Amino acid sequence: MERELALEIVRVTELAALASAPWMGRGDKNSADEAATLAMRAMFDSVSIRGTVVIGEGEMDEAPMLYIGEQVGNAEGPEVDVAVDPLEGTDIVAKGLNNALSVIAVAGKGNLLHAPDMYMEKLAVGPALVGKVCIEDPIEVTLEKAAVALNKNISDLTVMILDRVRHESTIKTLRKVGVRIKFLSDGDVAGAMAPAFPEAGIDLYVGSGGAPEGVLAAAALSCLGGEIQGRLMPANADEFQRCLQMGIDNPYKVLTMEDMIGTEDVIFAATGVTPGEILGGVRYLADDRAETDSIVMRAKTKTIRFIRSLHFLPNKEVLHKVRKLQASSEPSDRMIRKLTKEMEQAEFSQSAKEASVITNG
């Protein structure tokens, strides 16, 4: 993949974050997610890829845009798999909490796992624990191995886990063993990434969360030198069958990084919507400006870029169109068709002007 693609991708996450940020604390997670999705889908038209969404907002009959199988990009670049979460942490934004992100991962065609929308058991670690722990071990054994590898007392380890009823048994064990626990209200991707950032102070991320988010986290950790192991948790026969339909022959096997993202290059980009351990959130400044905090990484080079951008909001045409469409109360599928048509007309008009300059010059 072209290295310039990394900066193109982060422009998409920036706009999705800017679109959803005004909904922070307003108790409307659906509108926040809709705004991010509309903005992300529109911005993808400017990205030089021939992309296929393999992880997105749902199946074609469930989502009007960024659905699994949808073609994105301007059809002029490399053929790639695309995984997106326009707003990872919809409840976070609605409640005004921390760690909401807009996230994209891009890899060569056929490399990203088509993860079904179900729970995945996860164990994520930073570079110091890669290859040192195993998701199949009891959690007590995992903690003992981690303490030895990190040269720490078990009581000095910090484990991050989603604060969920389904984790009650694991939490009891963690407390019995005596580790420090940092609870996460939402934001599974940010949680899995945290052990790879020393400043976050997290040694391991454990528990279950969404399978699609596991693949996005694997993309990020491949760039950061960390590791995630996963195991799907089909809840019934229908979910088991769905795994088989998506090409996963053994839904209960341990999924490695290679299973989730392949062995080739991966680009990962995320922009903070609300502040978190890794990224700051969208900040509104004087004079119609807003600040975004993003990270964009590439597995092949292990280059990690933190990008602080200042945006002059009156010039964000897509952003204004998204807000206008949301205010119109039109169905989402009609919104995206209208927005896409307007973008195409704008691009055609600009191309015509450039051609006129060349012809008359």
From TrEMBL:
Q: List the GO biological process terms.
A: fructose 1,6-bisphosphate metabolic process; gluconeogenesis; glycerol metabolic process
Entries under Gene3D superfamilies matching the protein: 3.40.190.90, Fructose-1,6-Bisphosphatase, subunit A, domain 1
List of residues binding Mn(2+) 2: 85, 88, 213
Give the catalysed reaction(s), semicolon-separated. Answer: beta-D-fructose 1,6-bisphosphate + H2O = beta-D-fructose 6-phosphate + phosphate
Q: Which GO terms describe its molecular function?
A: fructose 1,6-bisphosphate 1-phosphatase activity; metal ion binding
Entry keywords, A to Z: Carbohydrate metabolism, Hydrolase, Manganese, Metal-binding
Q: Which residues bind Mn(2+) 1?
A: 33, 57
Pathway(s) annotated for this protein in UniProt? Carbohydrate biosynthesis
Task: List the GO terms this entry assigns under cellular component, sorted alphabetically.
Answer: cytosol
Q: Does the keyword Cell inner membrane apply?
A: no
A Pfam family of this chain: FBPase_glpX
Look up the record and name the cofactor or cofactors this protein needs: Mn(2+)
Q: Locate the residues binding substrate.
A: 88-90, 119, 164-166, 186-188, 210
Reading the lineage from the top rank, the first entry is: Bacteria
**InterPro entries membership:** FBPase_class-2/SBPase (IPR004464)
Xref: NCBIfam families: glpX
Matching PANTHER family: FRUCTOSE-1,6-BISPHOSPHATASE 1 CLASS 2-RELATED, FRUCTOSE-1,6-BISPHOSPHATASE CLASS 2
Would you identify the family this protein belongs to, as annotated? Answer: Belongs to the FBPase class 2 family.
**What is the recorded name of this protein?**
Fructose-1,6-bisphosphatase
The major lineage groups are: Bacteria, Bacillati, Bacillota, Bacilli, Bacillales
